[in-house]
Every structure is written in C-alpha cells, then in structure tokens.
Amino acid sequence: MLHLANRDLRLDLLDPVADAARLGARYCAGGYVWQVHDRKLGPLLSGPEFPKPDPTAFNGQGLPESFRNRSRSGTPFTWSGEQGLAIGAGTLTPGGKENGTLAQPCAWTITPAADHIVFQTRQAHAGFSCELTRKIELAGRTVNSLTQLTNVGEAPLTLEWFPHPFWALTAGRARLALPAGTNLPENPGFAIDAKGALTFKRPFLTKDDSQFALLTLPPGRELKLSVDHPKLKRVTFQVNYAPSECPVWANAHTASVEPYLALTLAPGETRHWHARHGFEV
C-alpha cells in the first residue's frame, strides 16, 4: 500500500498494481483511501464487511470513490455495444455485479509528495477518451480528495461520479446531522428525528441486513454533514457540488451517504470537484 502521514493521522491508500486483488470495476483505483488511522485511537473507517481483512472488491472499505458506467436504472453511460469503459478502473465486458466485468485495468502514474499523492491516467476505449487526475491530500486532521476529468475524445462524455465513504457505527447505529430541510421517504431502516438527524430505526444484524433510501436534499446547495463516531468528537463530510441524487445506505458494520454528481463533458472540456473529510477530536 501507499501511505500519507502527519503527527495526527496516517492514510493507507491502495496501490493500483500491488493491491490489484482489492480492486475491481466499481471503484476508482487511483486515490482509493483504504483506511485512516489516528495516531492514538487506531483505525477510524469501516466497510460493509469490516473488520474482515480481505473484503470483496465490490464492497471494499474506507473512502472509495467511483465513476458510474451505468445509471442506477441501468442506462449505459460509457458503453458501446459489448465494450465499456470504467473511468478510473479500466475496460469492461458485460456481466458481473459491478455493472460490468473488469477486462483490463488502466495504468497510473503516481507522484508522491510529503502531504499528498497524485494519481494520473489516460484511457481510451469504446469510443470514449479521457484524462483523469486524482489528488489525495492530508492537511492536519482533514483528508481532501480532488478530482480533475478532461474529455480528450471526440464524443461527449456523460456519466455520474460519487464518493462512497464507509463510516464507523457507534454501538451498532449511526447518527448523521443532515442539512436543514432534508427529507427521507418512509422506510423500515432510517428516520429523521426532530433535530434533523438521520438515525437508525433498528440495529442491523449482518452484512446482508441493510437499508437503502434516497435523501431529498435542499436544492442547489453543496452537501455538508457530520457523523457521530465511536472514537472521535465527530466526522465532517462535504462536497463542493449540489448532488443530483443522494442515496444513504447502511448495514451492521457501516453507514454511507453517496452524493452523486451528474456530468456531461463536451470534447475538450475539463471539470474539477472535491470531497473533504474532517476527523475531529
């Protein structure tokens, strides 16, 4: 693995080659934060199978991020017939749990520095071409994830991006302080309490005992929230875009909010965005 560290935290990041067994078609290989360790308190992140040391690539752990090659309803984005492109992962063939099976992983150039690591790749497949740069930065108790995507092909590039953080539960439950005005449809797993926080209606019992729901966020606003943590004062999370859709998911080991960013890049166009985690004591 690759590492970033300061006096407060240590980050473990997957090496796209050495840690290929932990990777698949779902998550972006470059800039995949596998774990964040507090110097005194130990590991701070979870996952759907945590603390299993070898979770499936589909589930993963830590702070993975992803480009969707299909919409949640199955509409293809970066596909041409039987050929698909998983941006940040590699080329795809049909089938598998990850909206495609990884046929060939993409190659990365990795540039480390004292407080950050930069991952760069160029991909061309299925009629699409792009250049992707991912920068993971450690600043005090804050982890910044910065992404730049350029369409270097001749066809428009339409897709969705989302971070998929796996936060630790507190006594088997989670409490997420959400933006004022957030709503949630009736469901058997989650509720929003009188203070505007998302809570569990019941404890989940296994990795397969889970709940998925869609948050309705205040329109046109960047997402900012905080999460109770069993070892910390709280974890803060924010993205610098207004999500197009925002699932929330949890099982017996973890909880996650996934703010989608809908993207359409014309040939030659570049987009930048970032996500930020603060681990507060």
| Sheet with most strands: strand arrangement | 10-11-12-13-25-21-20-16-18-17
Order of helices and strands: EEEEEEEEEEEEEEEEEEEEEEEEE
Number of helices: 0
Any idea what the radius of gyration is?
Answer: 18 Å
Number of domains: 2
Uncertain residue segments: none
Report the average pLDDT across residues.
96
Gross geometry: globular
> In this structure, how is the largest beta sheet organized?
10 strands, antiparallel
β-sheet strand percentage: over 45%
The helix-and-strand class reads mainly beta
N-to-C span? 26 Å
State the share of residues found in helices, binned by percent: under 10%
Beta strands, count: 25
How would you describe this protein?
- The chain is an all-beta fold and 281 residues long.
- The chain has two domains: 2-165 and 262-280, no CATH class; 169-259, no CATH class.
- Helix content is 0%, strand content 47%.
- The chain has no helices and 25 strands.
- The protein has strands at residues 2-5, 9-13, 33-38, 42-43, 65-68, 79-80, 83-86, 90-93, 101-105, 109-112, 116-125, 128-139, 142-151, 157-163, 167-168, 175-177, 190-192, 197-200, 211-215, 224-227, 234-239, 246-250, 254-257, 261-265, 270-280.
- The strands form five sheets. It has a ten-stranded antiparallel sheet, with no helix packed on it. A four-stranded antiparallel sheet has the order 1-2-3-4, with no helix packed on it.
- A hairpin with a 2-residue loop joins strand 6 (79-80) and strand 7.
- The chain is globular, with a radius of gyration of 18 Å.
- The mean pLDDT is 96.
